[in-house]
Structure prediction request, 286 residues.
Amino acid sequence: MSDKIFLNDILFDAEEAKVSVFDRGYLFSDGIYELIPYFNGKPFLFDEHYKRLERSLKMIDIENPFSRDEWADKINNLLKTCIYKNFSLYIQISRGVPSDLEDGIYREHAASKKYIPSVLMFYSENKGFPKKKPNEEKAIIMEDKRWLQCDVKSISLLYNAYAKTLAHRENAYETILIRDGNVTEGCSSNVFIVKENVIKTCPKSNLILPGISRTYIIDNLIKSTEYELIEKEFSLEELESADEIFVTNSTQCIVSINKLNDNLIGTGTCGKITEEIFSQFIKSIN
Prediction:
């Protein structure tokens, strides 16, 4: 049975869903997205993800096409077709297609016409979600060359995708990005380091995406431990000399980075603090 795709109020088989070549999401990456994890069939921090979706739409001046109740109804209708327990719901909203193409102007940088937003939703099984301990992975380092509005969850992910592809070629899970000598974030994750039992992560700003899992782990898990947390910029040198590194995202929650480029981090295995926070996370979602 094919998974179902929601596209502009119609459910399609995955192979049948199509968008217009004149969609500004296709032509200009003019849109935003959100990814909501579901654990044991239940959404994790749905309200927080929805608020970030609204914020991203507002920041690029796209009107929310549905009310919150309409979103809930449409999501529930789509997920009636989902058979997975652990999965991610992907939502994408682009500015869409011009309502009138009779003038023969099919592509223009300025969004000067009336547009019909395109709304896409689909779900994907999370096959790699760890149950007992964090995955241990390698990361590489690259210069952060993205635009300066990284706090918008934009579908314009060219540099992220490029850097992640280079990581894949190096058998690495993630690329950690460096701007002006300081760590910003990973291509698809927020970055934490541990040094002498102190946990550090860079603060929220326009240079990072405000991760929902990041905020939850800080406010609900780390702050309930005995460990000191510092939200402050930290350097590449601090990253390389850390006792532990872990990254957070919505699908894998916490991943231990035990190798940076060709150098081991700490003992080369998942550190005790990372494992402790991961264990708390697993208990909190069960």
Observations:
- Helices lie at 24-28, 46-59, 68-79, 158-169, 212-221, 236-240, 272-285.
- Residues 4-125 form a domain with the D-amino Acid Aminotransferase; Chain A, domain 1 fold (CATH 3.30.470.10).
- The first strand starts at residue 4 and ends at 7.
- Residues 50 and 113 are 27 Å apart (CA to CA).
